[in-house]
Design brief:
There is one protein chain. This protein is an alpha+beta fold and about 425 residues long. The chain has two domains: about 30-225, Beta-Lactamase (2-Layer Sandwich); about 225-420, Nucleotide cyclase, GGDEF domain (Alpha-Beta Plaits). The protein has helices spanning about 45-55, 55-60, 65-75, 120-125, 125-135, 190-225, 225-235, 255-265, 265-285, 310-325, 365-380, 390-395; strands spanning about 30, 85-90, 95-105, 110-115, 140, 160-170, 175-180, 240-255, 290-295, 300-305, 340-355, 355-365, 385, 400-405, 415-420. Strands 8, 9, 10, 11, 12, 13, 14 and 15 form an eight-stranded mixed beta sheet that branches. It has a seven-stranded antiparallel beta sheet with strand order 1-5-6-7-2-3-4, with helices on both faces. Strand 6 and strand 7 (about 175-180) form a beta hairpin.
Length: about 425
């Protein structure tokens, strides 16, 4: 494998340069003309083979590292003096602006996700950023005093002399880019620049497919969760498509939310809600759980699995983590506290709605019981209450019965347990 280093945010830049510019010459933006095939010389067959490979089923089936490695190898085979090749694939994600995939001869491919918070002035002043924002090819030299592209970690310490950055303009959405760097003192010749330009349309199509796939996965994962995302992409999007899952169930509700929202400004309430969710969500996902619903200030989560003991223990661990972290949070204007209900049972999971507007949800007697248990948390003042079924599964945990309760909608009394 070869290394691919990728920079999208703060430290990724890609540029192309014209041969032998003067020291004062600034990076230029231009479109490289595609010459007649005969201008490419004896490497024409190899170049056409590379373009065919980019359009092939073999390339389509490769992951991002395989794509970068295969492309880098083939660039070497046509004698292109590329010492660093990177793909900067932009996406739509609440935390990640894109993914960089970097290749260099005799190195493993390196892939790195770039977070929005890592965008720096060095990146936004670089040739890479200019190529993406202007949709024009940028050629840059190492001695340009206004562009510190060599300081970006994708290129740092590699003694690159020239960099060509070509935008990969999709039909819509953010613009990605490909960069090609060389150590050769004279940089890329016009003929070599034209070779790069010839492969860009095919490379753009390959990258666009990957970018679209990543975007749809990111958006689905962000708004509906990975389990629902997988079902949606598998085609389970028809109304009344229901399946039964068995899992540990959690309902976590923020106490006193109405009082907070009536007492504090709306922006402060949202800020506190985000602090609360920043505790609840990571605790659940770290233990293998998945958020099914955000219901105002409440979170409905499941911990699926083939092992009831493991799923139940994961749910209990997540609940304990949430309560501990909330207890240690201090604000001058609010105290965040939660009431958490845990139960193990079955849930009917699938689509409900009308026409083209559907939603994934879970329903069933065990979900109803979970909701009733959470109601007792608030009424009796317990931060965590556990159903008798889950206590039976986790028979080794120390629990104390708080009695039996007549819960709305259930004929039999339900015994509930508190864990000190």
């Amino acid at each position: 494998m070869r290394r691919i280093n990728l920079y999208f945010h703060g430290n990724t830049t890609m540029t192309f340069h014209q041969p032998a510019p003067s020291k004062t010459q600034e990076p230029t933006m231009h479109k490289l003309a595609s010459p007649p095939a005969q201008d490419i010389g004896s490497g024409a067959n190899a170049l056409f083979a590379l373009i065919e490979w980019l359009c092939s089923d073999e390339c389509h089936e490769l992951d991002e590292a395989g794509l970068a490695f295969g492309l880098g190898q083939r660039l070497c085979e046509i004698d292109l003096p590329v010492d660093r090749m990177t793909l900067h694939l932009m996406t739509l994600h609440p935390e990640i602006v894109g993914r960089s995939i970097a290749w260099a001869p005799n190195e493993p491919v390196h892939i790195r996700d770039r977070e929005h918070a890592n965008i720096t002035p060095t990146f936004t002043g670089s040739a890479l950023w200019r190529a993406m924002s202007t949709r024009e090819t940028v050629v840059a030299r190492h001695n340009d005093p206004k562009d510190r592209w060599q300081e970006l970690d994708t290129f740092a310490g590699r003694d690159l002399v020239e960099l060509i950055v070509v935008p990969l303009c999709n039909a819509d959405g953010p613009v990605s880019a490909a960069s090609f760097g060389t150590r050769r003192p004279r940089g890329f010749t016009p003929s070599e620049q034209n070779v790069i330009q010839r492969i860009i349309p095919s490379l753009r199509n390959v990258c666009e497919l990957r970018t679209l796939r990543q975007t749809e996965l990111s958006l689905l994962d962000t708004y509906v969760g990975p389990m629902t995302a997988q079902r949606s992409l598998a085609g389970r999007i028809r109304k009344n498509e229901i399946e039964t899952i068995e899992a540990a169930l959690m309902l976590c509700d923020l106490r006193g939310f109405t009082e907070l929202s009536n007492r504090l400004p709306a922006d402060r309430v949202l800020e506190l809600l985000n602090h609360y969710f920043d505790v609840v969500v990571p605790a659940i996902t770290h233990e293998g759980g998945e958020i099914l619903k955000f219901m105002g200030d409440a979170v409905l989560a499941v911990f699926p699995g083939y092992d009831a003991t493991r799923s139940s223990r994961s749910a209990l661990t997540a609940a304990s983590c949430i309560l501990e972290k909330l207890e240690n949070m201090a604000f001058t204007d609010a105290k965040l506290q939660a009431g958490i209900a845990l139960h193990y049972g079955e849930a009917s999971y699938g689509n409900i709605g009308s026409g083209r507007r559907l939603d994934f949800t879970v329903i069933g007697p065990d979900i109803n019981l979970l909701s009733r248990i959470q109601g007792v948390c608030g009424e009796a003042g317990y931060p965590l209450l556990i159903s008798a079924h889950l206590v039976e599964i986790l028979s080794d945990i120390p629990t104390t019965s708080i009695g039996t309760f007549a819960l709305k909608g259930f004929k039999d009394l339900k015994e509930l347990f508190y864990m000190p």
